[in-house]
Amino acid sequence: MSLQSFAPALPEIFVLAMVSLILVVDAALDDSKRHVTYALSLATLAGAAFLTLRDLSSAPSVVLNGLFIDDPLSDVLKLFVYLSTAAVMVYARAYLKARNLYRGEFFVLALFALLGMMVMVSASHFLSLYLGLELLSLSLYAMVALQRDSAVATEAAMKYFVLGALASGMLLYGMSMVYGVTGSLALGEIAQLLADGTDLRLPLVFGLVFVVAGLAFKLGAVPFHMWVPDVYHGAPTAMTVFIGSAPKIAAFGFVVRILGQGLESQVAEWRDMLVVLAVLSMAIGNIAAIAQSNIKRMFAYSTISHMGFMLLGILAGTQSGYGSAMFYVLVYALMSLGGFGMILLLSRAGFEADRLDDFRGLNRRSPWLAFVMLLLMFSMAGIPPTVGFYAKLSVLQAVIELGYVWLAVVAVLLSLIGAFYYLRVVKLMYFDTPHDTQPVAAGADARILVSANGLAILALGILPQPLMALCAHAIGASL
Amino acid sequence: MFGQEILSLVIWVPIVAGIAVLATGSDRNAPLARMLALVGALLGFIVAIPLATGFDTATAAMQFVEKKSWIPAFNVHYHLGVDGISMPLILLNSFTTLLVVIAGWQVIQDKVAQYMAAFLVMSGLINGAFAALDGILFYVFFEGMLIPLYLIVGVWGGPNRVYAAFKFFLYTLLGSLLMLVSLLYLYYQSGGSFDIQTWHRTTLGMTAQTFIFLSFLLAFGVKVPMWPVHTWLPDAHVEAPTGGSVVLAAITLKVGAYGFLRFMLPIVPDAAHELAWLVITLSLVAIAYIGLVALVQADMKKLIAYSSIAHMGFVTLGFFMFNPLGWEGGLVQMISHGFVSAALFLCIGVMYDRLHSRQIKDYGGLANRMPVFAALFMLFAMANAGLPATSGFVGEFMIIMAAAKVNFWFAFVAATSLITGAAYTLWMYKRVVFGPVGNPQVEAMKDLTAREFLLLGVLALAVLGMGLYPKPFTDVMHASVVELLAHVAQSKLP
In chain A, fewer beta carbons within 10 Å around the N or the C end? Predict the structure, then answer.
């Protein structure tokens, strides 16, 4: 194998080299020089983005003995993963500093997780898929546990680890069944073999069930969602914002690779499973969110319902369905970043700002931040003219095209329930008077970022076409 | 310069003005915010005038059309246009916004910029809903207007404002979400188009038509509001600030009725004929029963809110008579109700600002202290009761005539409202305005200020003008109504 054949994986190689470098450099820095690590991490993301942009592919090419695929889908997903990872680092900086977590470990683990995500979206082989997933997961477990003297964080990390390991086990077991049926681990070959038909229906469906269950665990879809609220709530907010954004984008890529590429011909089998997962996720997520008084927990349940909505797009099993799900997940990552970013912005040393009550009267303390949060909330609720509306619109359109009108009706009724708790946040900010009258003490960088984040939601709501077209193109050219 | 883009201006001038007002920031700059809001509302009204002067009453085709590609991925267009049905409503809305800005001039002292901005932005969004000829564009405006209204009720409303704001928002959202599913279904059935005029021609089976009909009925019926999904309206009205009540009654209710004509009747005519009994029954219940409910209200705002429901019952009744008289009567009634309800809520606002009560029992003998006000209030009360020579008479009379052509008993039940309407309005008027001065605080009440007189005087002219000479209004509508009726009369079954 020549050196040239590694070229499509250049961004991954670059990130790996940079993480190793940062690991060494950071060991030599004392606490006052930590901004060097921060700058190097952002530079890594910029460099990776440059390398990905320089070599945008127009058609899929499978390289490295079938382990790795370089296609427009992976390029686009990677770019958004870089972007949200960078946003996380900017949002989290002040929060980490105030809690003595502003150390090299955070950046190194985040970049390792990034590498895992890059591998996940670019894998075309069960082995590399699993490798990427585990690299991401192990980094996340460690990140959650980073605040080691916090009992809730440690508990959350423990739960995350145990349930995550269980999910990985299920996924591996399902993969092994598929391997048993087809004799191959490469997605392309599996797809071809299954398209020709197989007489081993039972083991195949059996394996499929385990694969879907494993994926549902990773997405946090009901009934495999139990870890989500505890982890979102227990983890330091700087970690929650990370878990809630980029990994969801990667998980989308992961699911589409396995179900949409490898097991495409079995769509009739996995569609029914996803319908159940989607309906349950939207129902439990939206209803349970109402009862929460902690906003991180509320967002956790809202994530569950959003994943249910995204599954609506995937279960259509069509190009427009995958495109709409991709649009949904990118929009979701944008909203989630903004929502958790806002919690980080309002928190300060010794104060987490993670209760709903902490948002009371925000309009009096800072009208602009309240307005940005208002946009985020209405976008999550799917009210135009914010981009969240188009995300819901496009997945519903995919479902109706499939002929599942009842599913669309169920989805909109459940999103009506969801609107209630988003409206409650707006009510707290605008209709109530504040308990906490301290001015918001956030740095200019985080303020600018959260403003840009909120305005992006409005701007994409007025002109959603570019992002929609990008998603449609990425899916159309790759699958 | 903007010769071709009048409708865009009508939508975007108020929204841009609203953003400018918002940028003035805190209440230190309140005078500037008020001034900017007035200029914005005035400009918004001025740019809408060419719609009336340049309108061709001879054609039923869409006029002032603008069409640009907006979201090619879903074949969604920025497609605007007005006909004789929507044009008067846009003017009414732009005019009402001006009134609301003036009405809130002194009353609102808290977060002035946000208050004015919310009304201006909402005005632009409502104009958009009336002008949109694309399903998704309409939906964006239709839903988008909920956000400012939610804030208006919740931030500047009365003691129970939070409950009212949630109820209003979730109620209307329920209807519109189901409508969204219908819009997507129509997109799929029409071969990938969100164009409303294309949907008018799309053939649909009876089952599909029935479901679409029901979803539209829920979406627009909640907005109108029709009995029995009307309960959000009295709550929202009582808690909303005066300006909010004016816009709610005068404008947002009309968006619901407008939806019947633009969406429901032409898109699913067969289901509409088949299920007309349902709408007629609900309308008659609203007219007869809600009129009685209004009679026993102790709160003036609630009384007018219930009377709005009864009056809107006339509108939906007129639409489902499927004859030109009924439709034109319904449209005239919409405009008239816009003037009359706005005026009555402003009158209640005038009293509330002085006494801080909306309870009828706290008043009495106002005629002694506020004669000018009492005279104007009298006119609006008469118009609300449907007295001839006021605008309130024209629409109701036309609808009762239209109903008599279809079925005597429809007309009979509808006509009872002439009695109940007179009873609840005039009884309230009597208790508030006549009699001895019951309350020492009433003694101290001052008559109208110049600003208030201007507001009510303009509305009085409108009410009288429309009552004495409604022809210009019906002329504008006539061609569009005839054309649309002919369309609705044709079956769309495959």
Answer: N
Q: How many CB atoms lie within 10 A of CB B238?
A: 21
What separation in angstroms does the CA of A453 have from each of A92, A376, A442? 15, 9, 16
In this complex, do B73 and A412 lie within 8 Å of one another by their Cβ atoms?
no
| Chain B positions in Cβ-Cβ contact with residue A383 (cut-off 8 Å) | 143-144, 146-147, 173
Under an 8 A CB cutoff, do B184 and A396 touch?
A: yes
Helices (H), B296-360: 300-319, 324-355
Band (pLDDT 50/70/90 cuts) for residue B1 is very low
Q: What is the pLDDT of residues A245-295, one digit of tens each?
A: 999 999 999 999 999 888 888 888 889 999 999 999 999 999 999 999 899
**Taking residues B236-257, what's their average pLDDT?**
84
Partners of residue A384 in chain B, C-beta under 8 Å: 139-140, 143-144
pLDDT tens readout for residues A22-63: 999 988 888 888 889 999 999 999 999 999 998 887 778 888
* C-alpha to C-alpha distance for A64 and A60, rounded to whole angstroms: 13
CA distance B62 to B43: 24
**Contacts made by residues A141-145, CB under 8 angstroms, sequence distance 24+:** A142/A105, A142/A109, A143/A106, A143/A109, A143/A110, A143/A113, A143/A235, A143/A239, A143/A242, A143/A243, A144/A231, A144/A234, A144/A235, A144/A236, A144/A239, A144/A243
In chain B the first and final C-alpha atoms are separated, in Å, by 46
Q: What is the pLDDT of residues B479-489, one digit of tens each?
A: 888 888 888 88
Could you tell me if A191 and A262 are in contact, meaning their C-beta atoms sit under 8 angstroms apart?
Answer: yes
Q: Which residues of B touch A419 (CB under 8 A)?
A: 169-170, 173
Report the 10 Å Cβ neighbour count for B234: 24
pTM of the model: 0.92
Nearest by Cα to A143 from A224, A247, A298: A247
Distance of CA B257 to CAs A106, B127, B138, B142, B262, Å?
57, 15, 14, 13, 9
Read off φ and ψ for residue A412, nearest 5 degrees: -70, -35
Report, as an integer, the average pLDDT of A67-83: 91
Alpha-carbon torsion (B383, B298, B251, B283), positive or negative = negative
